Amino acid sequence: MIYSALLGLLQTNVFAPPSKLYNHPNSFFHTRQVSSLASGTSNNTKNFVQLKCIRVVKGAVPAYLVRAWEEFKKNHGSENDHPRIFPRKQQWIVLESTVCGQPLENAMPACSLARLSVFCQTALGLAVAEQRLAFEHRDLHWGNVLIADSPSSPAATSTCPYSSSSCPRLPVSRLLDVEYQPPPGPLTNIIDFTLSRMNHADAPLFIDLSRDEELFTGVGDHQFDIYREMRKELGDDWSLFRPKTNVFWLHYLAEKLKSTASLHCSPREKQHRESRLLIGRLEGQLRQPNVYASASDFVCKHSFFASLRRTTLLDDPSDKFAEISLES
């Protein structure tokens, strides 16, 4: 049976059938498994999209969804197939998920404190998934990192919403029985597990990317270099668990957070200046080869994350960075 996917939030009339090579039921199983990471004793995180339900349906794509797809392609572009190419008796797997916000590439926070929080939440999510599922994302570009809307626009107010003592705390992540409180920022969720790898019942679930030579020929962005770096790390055996690939993507993310134009958004200049410096330092450290073997290794070893352990936090979330060391 050939499966195609109707992905997205039906309530927003947005969907995206994937390219033919990756029409694989494993990606839906991956989504269900990472949703389970929100609960657990020793390792848990709420930084993955939460799956509400999966349905198998049959028939032509409704006209209103076709129009929505065409409008999306017109405004944003798409490499996916037009939904009209599929037969009227096509079967689809429909995923309904929680609303997670906007892709980072379209909604980069102006606030450096918020950017640091996005990085922290992503790293913690990957670290927990490594421990629970032997997970590698393998496609964590900034379109697959979603951030919730900020309480208010930092550029339009004199006070950064994330510096305020009234800013709600983000959900904690627990890694190897240690709880980490992310710094203030927008809730961040990781999505799209089409290329991901994980274990289930002691067997790997993965896509054999060696069949997609075109994936490794892209140029013009660090994203395309990472596909080639992953191939080298894995020796083109995509069944292997090599969590260093998650470190490659964390470096990519830190680079995006560092290099994208930023705005000063708060009179608390010291806090935001130190956040900018820390993002730059993290990017430089992740760029070094053979320092961190995995996302969990990075979280457990780096002093930044040590300062976020629940036992070391101050009561006021607006003062989280009072004692953060910029040293590794």
From TrEMBL:
* Its EC number(s): 2.7.11.1
Say if the entry is tagged with keyword ATP-binding. Answer: yes
Organism's domain of life? Eukaryota
For this record, an example GO cellular component is:
cytoplasm
Entry's Gene Ontology molecular function annotations: ATP binding; histone H3T3 kinase activity
Q: Which SUPFAM superfamilies match?
A: Protein kinase-like (PK-like) (SSF56112)
UniProt-listed GO biological process terms: intracellular signal transduction; mitotic cell cycle
Q: Name one Pfam family in it.
A: Haspin_kinase
The reactions it catalyses are: L-seryl-[protein] + ATP = O-phospho-L-seryl-[protein] + ADP + H(+); L-threonyl-[protein] + ATP = O-phospho-L-threonyl-[protein] + ADP + H(+)
Q: Which keywords describe this protein according to UniProt?
A: ATP-binding, Kinase, Nucleotide-binding, Serine/threonine-protein kinase, Transferase
Domain Serine/threonine-protein kinase haspin C-terminal: where? 213-305
Q: What is this protein called?
A: non-specific serine/threonine protein kinase
Lineage, uppermost ranks: Eukaryota, Metazoa, Spiralia, Lophotrochozoa, Platyhelminthes
Q: Per UniProt, what is the name of the gene that codes for the protein in this document?
A: HASP
